[in-house]
# Entry
Amino acid sequence: MSEINNGFEVSASQRQSWGSLAMIWIGSMICVPCLMIGGFLGMGFTLGGVVLCVLLGYGIVCTYMCFMGMEGCDTGLPTVSMAGSVLGEKGAQYIISLMLAIACIGWFGIQSAVCGSSFSSMVASMTGVSIPVWLSSFVWGILMLLTAMYGYKALKYLNYIAVPALLLVMAYGVFAAFTKNDGSAIIANYQPAAPMSLVTGISLTVATFALGGVISGDYSRFAKNRKDVIKSSVLGVLPVGLLMILIGAVLSIVTGQYDISAVLASVGVPAFGLIALVLATWTTNVTNAYSGGIAVSNLFGVGEKKFKIATAIAGGLGTLLAAIGLMSKFQAFLSILTAFIPPIAGVIIASYWILGKGKKENVVIKKGFALDGIISFVLGAVVAYITGNIAVFFIGPINGIVVSMVSYIILHRIFEKKKEK
# Structure
């Protein structure tokens, strides 16, 4: 393997157990967006239909997530560095790093803004004290950023504390909602008023973790072996993802709203709702800042030695965007960017697993810009956007991954033959 890795390669002493890695994914899955998607799915499906959407949607994400993660484990490199073998060192640095940095910074800002707005609203309802939303967003953004700056171990310990607490609060919220609203009878007789297609349901599910599947190498590079990557990915995403979306669906069916904090406030325990809101945002948002920091490090070519500074820049920008209220205008751009990111996985998987036979020694970081990889990525991104937003067909991000994979295999062989001549 090329020695060009920008200082990101993981040593044997830094490897972690699959359980600690799974906790990172579990913490990422326990988030407000999953509850929101569950609420949307609950409006269009019975609970059986919701389960089917989740199993198929997250099954798709976990598949490419495992391939990305196993390469990260084999090479010890994060996603942005792995991309150097298919888009070239400069292509990965300027194209992929920039896209991932913007996506992670943007999502960090969105989560901070949501947390700040909800925190201010709940404190006002509980105490009558009015806290400016910009101030709440700024303070919570900084606290989340500080956790991310201390890297993988900080994420691990945060999730050890937050995940059990969150699960208890979620369980109590569902129990309280059922008790107050005769939930069993409502669920037994429920029929969706506006049925949704299975493809739409799967697409919504994939959207909640499409980015996470691509950047999984940032965390799976710390795994001890491929088997640990698969166990941590599948067990860290599927069970909790299913649980969170089901909770969102059940709450939307029984109470008419998916927001666990609002449900807890409505049954007289707003403090529990506040805890759930803050912890759910915190455990998810630190991964945005962490991966954003890696992307910024690679973008400026400073490697992991300046990781804390790069993470501070990424999280600081996201916090600033949240505090000054620009996130509402930024979300439309982020939705487009998120559709473009999964095809990155397509070219990387094609290069390592199909052409490179899954062998670490076949990974070579190419100099400059590699046109075969860049063209394949662009083709996949365009197809993902068109089939996901304009001429809707199947699942946009998955279409993009398949197109980028096939394109890279074909174009790489064409470019190699030209070199031989």
